[in-house]
Amino acid sequence: MSVVHPPKNDQYPRLNALIAEAKQKSPFYSDLYRDMVTTGQLTPKDVPLIDHTKYWAAYHDSERSVMTSCQIDGILMKTGGTTGIPKFTSYSQIELLRTASLLADGLLHAGLRAGDRVGNLFYAGDLYGSFLLHILSVISLPIPAIQIPIGGLMAPDVTAELLRTCRVTAVLSTITSLVRLASYCRPKQERFPSVTAVMFGGEPMFDDQVSAVANLFPNATIHSCIYGSIDAGVVAVSAGRPDPAEHIVLSAAAIVEILVDKDGDLVPTEQPNIPGTLVVTNLIRDLTPVIRYPTGDRAEWVDKSTFRLLGRNNHAVRLGPVSLDISHLRQLARAVLKTVAIEAFQVVVTRQDSKDAM
């Protein structure tokens, strides 16, 4: 297993190179950085945050506006589920392969072993990247493993049959798919004792879900396979601790900041147990730069290189594997209520019968 080191200042030359290239070649970043001097040694706090609304509006007008060049290879993928205008992001071929290698590192941290038969239950198609990326991640492993590409759209009975007949020993999946499978298997008292590693991604895991998945796979460790997203890239790997929300930053791939409000300004904190907004700079993506990009999540530092996820920020709601922008929910409310004036707007998310409810 590779060793993950804490973030160091030697990330900053790479940050400076990214900023210089983005300012020179990307219309969006050229405008964002127009008043910023890019000579000398910049640190993240010297760089403005990306405004999501402006970023995606620029991408929708012309994807080239946020890119540093025209795409000639690689892949186009849809970002994690949301309402409103579809959002896509581009990876070059080399960026795709680097991402697969980082994902492979995440699988090792999450408990994958040599010789495992890996059941991939992520969703495929419709430009979503999780299934393909984890096919590539297993190929990129430094240890031997066997792919079992089941997918996430199969009925639970079919998934259960394939896990059994293909002798799967490690599972990659969203939490939603795992809980649905657990709900199907529980009345039948069906379990999968041969599975020794469950690696989830795409959504947070709650205590009731941990219990359901642990009952289904009684001999398995349960860890996040990575922390990241299609738009932000791979950011961190499982810390391998009892709390699945704890992740170790991949310092060669990303700069992670946790920002807190100080007199109306968002400033970085390195103090543990101080909740704030999680902001990411991806160090391996040149084609579509991701520089000081708010992920939409809240987090707190555990130690210098490890953070704990605390759920979504206040501009988005997470329901299972789907993110819903608050602004889009407001638009929906206005459309339904028509002439009724909305003076205040609140979204309440609860857990009912082991499901998210809004």
Automatic annotation (TrEMBL):
It comes from the Eukaryota. InterPro entries: AMP-binding_CS, ANL_N_sf. Keywords: Ligase. One of its GO terms (molecular function) is ligase activity. The keyword Methyltransferase does not apply. PROSITE patterns: AMP_BINDING. This is AMP-dependent synthetase ligase. It comes from Fusarium tjaetaba.
